[in-house]
Design a protein that fits this description.
- This protein is an alpha/beta fold.
- The strands form two sheets. The chain has a seven-stranded mixed sheet with strand order 2-1-3-7-8-9-10, with helices on both faces.
- Strand 9 and strand 10 form a beta hairpin.
């Protein structure tokens, strides 16, 4: 079995069907040798994108969304609570106290958004602990800096729901709604 890459801190997953998201991915990945990017169009692409890595500190999803759901431009695939179980083994890509951000309109909104964040954290942060944040309203272009989720200077406009998880994959507290 090939060894996992530990030289990358931050992975930027984006919708390749969206011009602005592709440009943001180029900006993000070009900032440091410790940043990488990968296009995704569904849950299988997320699993494949995470598989080469170990000890990621930060995972950023830049996609379209609606409450409790990620969708993609020019693709019929979606990511929902119903298929997040495919990420069970992908938690090995993350390091302790990792940060995960879903940067797409309304993903964290309502009970469906809360469930999405909770299930995602349960699968991806088990054994590591950390934070999952998702937008609760319309998102406008940019990266952000909040609770250590990012150190980017490019700004966004929107609201977030952020949960902290322990190493069992359970929610410790809600930081922002």
């Amino acid at each position: 079995m090939a060894s996992k890459r530990t030289d990358i801190d931050r992975l930027f997953l984006y919708d390749p069907g969206e011009y602005v998201m592709r440009k943001q991915a180029e900006y993000f990945a070009g900032r440091s040798g410790k940043h990488a990017k990968a296009p995704i169009r569904g849950i299988k692409d997320v699993v494949n994108a995470l598989s080469p890595y170990s000890q990621l500190k930060w995972l950023h999803f830049n996609t379209h969304g609606m409450p409790g759901k990620i969708y993609f431009e020019r693709s019929p695939n979606t990511i929902t609570v119903g298929n997040l179980h495919a990420l069970c083994e992908s938690n090995k890509a993350l390091g302790d106290n990792a940060r995960i951000l879903f940067h797409g309109c309304n993903i964290g909104e309502s009970g469906a958004g809360s469930d999405f964040i909770t299930v995602c954290g349960r699968y991806l942060l088990k054994e590591h602990g950390g934070f999952v944040g998702a937008s609760t309203g319309m998102m406008f272009a940019g990266f952000f800096s909040l609770f250590g989720l990012s150190d980017q200077t490019y700004r966004y406009w929107g609201k977030l729901r952020i949960y902290q998880f322990d190493k069992l994959g359970d929610v410790i507290r809600q930081i922002a709604r």
